[in-house]
Amino acid sequence: MNIEMNDARPAEAVSWRKRVSSLKHLPPVLKMVWKAAPGVLMCSLVSRLLAAVLPITLLAITRKIIDSIYLVTTHQRSLSRGFWFLVALEFLLAGVGIILARLVDFSEKVLAERYTNYVNIRIMRHAATLDLTSYEDPQFYDKLERARVQGADRSGLIQESGQLLQEFISTVTLAAGVYLISPWILCALVTFVVPAFLGETHFAFLGYSLNVQQTPARRELDYLRLLGASKESAKEQKLFGLGSFLVGKYKAVSDELYRQNVILSRRRLLVGSLLSLLGTVGYYGTYAYGIHLTLIGALTLGTLTFLAGAILGASNSIQALFSTFSHIADHALFVSDLIEFFGVQPKVSSKPICLAGPRPIRQGFEFKNVSFAYPGRSRQVLENVNFHLEPGERIALVGANGQGKTTIVKLLTRLYDATGGQILLDGNDLRDYDLESLWKEIAVIFQDFMRYDMTASENIAAGRIEEKENSFRVRAAAMKSNAEEVVRKLPKRYEQMLGCRFSGGVDLSGGEWQKLALARAYLRDAQLLILDEPTAALDAKSEHEVFERFAELTEGKMSVLISHRFSTVRMADRILVLKNGTIAEQGPHCQLVNSGGCYAEMFELQAAHYR
């Protein structure tokens, strides 16, 4: 994957506009910070406000102390009555400054932790509301990846926002002190610092542009890391000798990203160093001018000390103010990805006024001239499909791969909306029902079912998570799916951690995992049971055991079964044969076999292997 540095340059012309416009994302982020930890945020703000006025206060006290000492040593005057009070006050304020700095540091760390947790939880919640089609879009994955990174990496925005407030107050108070003594010194300081600020913002935008362009490459690196060190890929990697290939591919992409980052960092180092030197020239030039004023008697020694401290503090504060603002603009550019992610809304959703899922279902589901094409593709996966699934009926979907069997399931469960035609449930459009209540009436086990690295009990309870504490129902579901015999062999039974991700986990065979997945469907106790290749990973004996109970488990329920095994689908009341995105044949097994159509042909091909 090749990403040229020159690709970022056309964006420079509009960089200022984009930097300024990106600041509109700060209020939503600050609102999230407030929601994450309002008390901690208030503590941080108060501490920073107090810390911001300390420098000018200490300089003012130091000025009085030095002038008093000068009068005593040169004019033989006695110490003023409040002299030692000022010394004690200066000592006290210095101690307060140390405590405030630690309090600010503590508050910021706690706040960053709370904010990161809050954002990550919000990302997970929002991602859970999005359409299945979103997860099939590479651009969405780029946006999701950047949002996840911003949730973890942009907590620095909180600290720098607080620093900006503190530096602004410090700058205003110190600049006011310098201005009262010499307005020209203040003008000189600002003049020398502005170029450094412009340079920082310029490179901040280039860094953002490069990061956006590198997102697909970084996702590729994550995928290659997964391939190079995962249980799923380990067998083929070793047997096919893919290790060197994957390492080489990873190295090529990572080296290109490294090269691009070094080029930008080198430019930033050179130009930034030169511009930063201007700030140093500004400080020492104005300091020398202050010495000149003192030598000609225009300033007292205490005033020179005050001015020197104020010039240094103002110079540092102005540079820090501009630098922090630049960093915040940088963060704001990146945070825009997070805000945009939260702005993505699902297309499949419940209407404001909708129907509750019917219980019981009385008329069933009906497909009326249903067509469907996946987003961004012109080819119709389904075209004018018509069938009726009645209450209590068991149907099977058969056909070659890619004929639309799983797509029908996704439309039936409203993971997608049909692009043509209409799907009815009890005579009402499926889109008129509340999604949550509709899904509660459906239990689905897909061929690519999830294997949760959790306890055996939690793996089963995922089917109806509100029942996770109901051990009786969990165990009953396990017995129905024959998962009980799997759990009985585990050292900690239902509390055994499964998978290899965490310490103490026990991995299962494909068939054992599938029995747990089947248990989820039975625990759900839904009116519609959908099994997409439910016995794909089971041996013949286990398959026979599952379908011995098929009639019992689906009694009184509608069920949809997808399978390539005709010994399985023949148990259905009706079989729908899909070909070229349409229903080519339908009927009971015996009728279809005797008809001599495509079902009979497929049945004979499979039966021939067992003769």
Description:
α2 (26-36) crosses α4 (83-129) and α6 (156-181) packs antiparallel against α10. Mean pLDDT is 79; it is low at 1-14. β9 and β10 form a beta hairpin. The strands form 2 sheets. The chain has a 6-stranded mixed beta sheet, with helices on both faces. A 4-stranded antiparallel beta sheet has the order 2-1-4-5, with helices on one face. It is of the alpha/beta class. The protein has 2 domains: 25-203 and 274-343, ABC transporter type 1, transmembrane domain (ABC transporter transmembrane region fold), CATH 1.20.1560.10; 365-608, P-loop containing nucleotide triphosphate hydrolases (Rossmann fold, 3-Layer(aba) Sandwich), CATH 3.40.50.300. 62% of the residues lie in helices and 9% in strands. The protein has helices spanning 15-22, 26-36, 38-75, 83-129, 138-153, 156-181, 183-228, 231-239, 243-295, 301-343, 405-412, 435-439, 456-461, 471-480, 484-488, 510-524, 540-548, 550-553, 566-569, 589-595, 598-608, and strands at residues 365-372, 382-389, 394-398, 420-425, 428-429, 442-445, 528-532, 558-562, 574-579, 582-587.
Low-confidence stretches: 1-14
Number of strands: 10
Strand content: 5-15%
What is the count of distinct domains?
2
Question: How many helices?
Answer: 21
- Per CATH, the class of the largest domain reads Mainly Alpha
Describe the main β-sheet briefly: 6 strands, mixed
User: Averaged pLDDT, please?
Assistant: 79
Can you tell me the CATH topology of the largest domain?
ABC transporter transmembrane region fold
What best-fitting shape do the alpha-carbon axes yield? elongated
CA radius of gyration: 35 Å
Q: Going across the major beta sheet, what is the strand order?
A: 6-7-8-3-9-10
Structural class, from helix and strand content? alpha/beta
Helical content, roughly? 55-70%
Indicate the CATH architecture of the largest domain: Up-down Bundle
